[in-house]
Structures are given as C-alpha cells and as structure tokens.
Amino acid sequence: MKRRLLTLCALAGLAVGLQAQAAGFTLRLAHGNARERAARAQFERVLAAHALDPWIQTREIVFEQGAIPHSHPVLTLNTRHTDDDGLFLSTLIHEQTHWWLERHPRRTEAALAELKAMYPDLPVGYPEGADSADSSYSHLLVICIELDGVRKVLGASEEKRILAFWQDDHYRTLYRIVAANRARIRDILDRHGLQLPDSHAG
After folding, report:
1. Does residue 151 lie in a domain region?
2. Can you give the three-state secondary structure of 70-92, one letter per residue?
3. pLDDT digits (tens, 9 = 90+) for 28-44
4. What is the pTM of this model?
5. What CA–CA distances, in Å, run from 190 to 83, 90, 156, 194?
6. Are 137 and 177 in contact (CB under 8 A)?
7. Is residue 21 part of a domain?
8. Residue 77: inside a domain
9. Domain containing 179: what range?
10. Strands 75-77 and 60-63
11. 186 belongs to a structural domain
C-alpha cells in the first residue's frame, strides 16, 4: 500500500512537471536572488489565476532586479511590484503588447500615422513620455490595450487604481491622453485590426 502511494505521488509530481513544461515558458533569473525568485513565483501565480492567453506573445521572460521593464530583445520584468499583482499584471500585458504590435508592422504604422495627426506634440522623455517621439506614439496603442486588458482580467475598479498609479509614475502624459481619449484610440485599434483576439474590455 505504501509503495502504491509513493508511486501515485511520483506520477502526480510528473504530471505537474509536464503541465509546467506544456505551458512552454522559458523563465530565467538574471542574478538568481530572492527578489527575482519572488517575481518568478508571482508570475506563475498570476498566470495560474487568470486567463492571459490573448496577451501572451512571447514565452521567454527574464526577471531582473533593478531593471527597467522592457520587451526586447527578451521580455524583462523587474522585481518592483512583487507585493502588487495588479501592477505586475499591468506591466506584463504592457510589455507583451509591444511584441503584438511588432508582429503587425503595416497595421501599426497606419495606426501611428493617425495618432500623429491627432496628437502632433507628444512629450518625449521621462516621466511624461517615452524615450523617443515614435515610442511615445506607439505607447498610446500599447497603453490602450494594456488598460483594456487590466479591465477585462481584474475589473474596472482595479483598472482605475492602476491607471491612477501610472499617471503619477511614468509615461504620465501618455496615460492621461489614453484615459481621456480611450474611445478614439480604441477605434483606431479596431479599424486597423490591432485589438488582440478575445482581449477587448467589456
């Protein structure tokens, strides 16, 4: 009986291992410290708790303490929000969305041309804008998809809290523009086929 229980436990452990492998993520720690391990565990917890498939565009992720989150060449998340799953999820969707837009360059360029006509003087540089004019325009699309994703996954009240945080943190003017003009930017995304399938906020 004892041997049978041990066998069942081993099979259960194997099944869990195969399930994790089937997810297909490559998760790396830049330094292997406790904060990065906590961020990786947070990612695994958030992934298990929510249906995030529409927003997952790359499955290789690095966790690096002290890094500024970025999408390329490898999606990299920092350890800043290990105590706040909402902000962590928002950051994850944000960086994944950059990969989505990169995969649709013609549609993205057409959408950006409209945004440049609508908003001729976007800020450049921290904390109001991105690091270039083109990046600031691109971030209007990214932020709109990001906020819609947060609303769909976590609900309107959590989206409101997260938006308020980012508006006083970084890309401040860009988040405010999206907040005030969401319908117009959504319309651009829709007309150019840039909404992620099954991701549009209700």
Report:
1. yes
2. ECCCCEEECCCCCCCHHHHHHHH
3. 999 999 999 999 999 99
4. 0.87
5. 34, 21, 21, 6
6. no
7. no
8. no
9. 104-202
10. parallel
11. yes
